[in-house]
Amino acid sequence: MVSFEGDATDPHLSIKLIEKYVNEAKANVDESYTYSRRVSIDRVKRNAAGPADVLRLLKQPSGASREAVRAADYMDNTLHLIKSSLSIHARHPLFVLPQVRNVSNHILKTVNSDVDSDPLYTHLITIFGQWTDHDLTFTPHSPSIRSFNGATDCDKSCANTEPSCGSGETGHIFGARTIRQQLNTLTSFIDAGQVYGSDDSKAHLLRIFSTDEGLLRVNKKHKDNSRDLLPFTTMGANMCATRRRMTNNDSAEEVLCFSAGVSD
């Protein structure tokens, strides 16, 4: 119920108070996004980024998808602030799920003696299934590495806060996952979006519009036996710079990440 009068202790929220919480939530989310991007890129530049940092940066939403994710975070944080002001605590049913390994072993249980080499299908069919999946669904990582309320850094706290700390792959570090709805940032059609992009912003970045053909961009520096390679990304921080560290050779040439329709 919404009334046009009241304050934070009034069980009826006013329009003015709702607008206050919306503005506060937007400020919280924007600040966390800015902080997270600055810290994440700094880790890459200092060669201090771990695998989780690289994966999160590669799976960041972009273009229209990023705006949709940001809007969802605005709404989520607004509702959090309103519920906190009214002392409303939503209760969710708790279901104890079986271990993933037990489920897969039960469904696909077999013994080596029952496994025959298929004369028609190879492991490539599994890879093609993964390729097709990347054309249908892509759940981005949260752009934030700290909570929107209280500025809790997920890497420095065991607090299970909303929604970036304790959701997704980091959830079990905090003991339990934060309940959160996921977004699909791709089209739900088999349209080769992982090659050509799934939104106008990504599609324009991948094509050359200096000619009428509108061909896909290719790598200007390297080829594979005269065959074109994907173009390098234009990101300022090179997350794929691993050659020198892996070879212990400070003079090894680093290679930028490739750019494609999906970064996964």
From TrEMBL:
Gene3D superfamilies registered for this protein in UniProt: Haem peroxidase domain superfamily, animal type
Descriptive protein name: Uncharacterized protein
Highest taxon listed in the record's lineage: Eukaryota
InterPro entries for this protein: Haem_peroxidase_animal, Haem_peroxidase_sf, Haem_peroxidase_sf_animal
Coiled coil: none
PROSITE patterns: PEROXIDASE_3
Pfam families (alphabetical): An_peroxidase (PF03098)
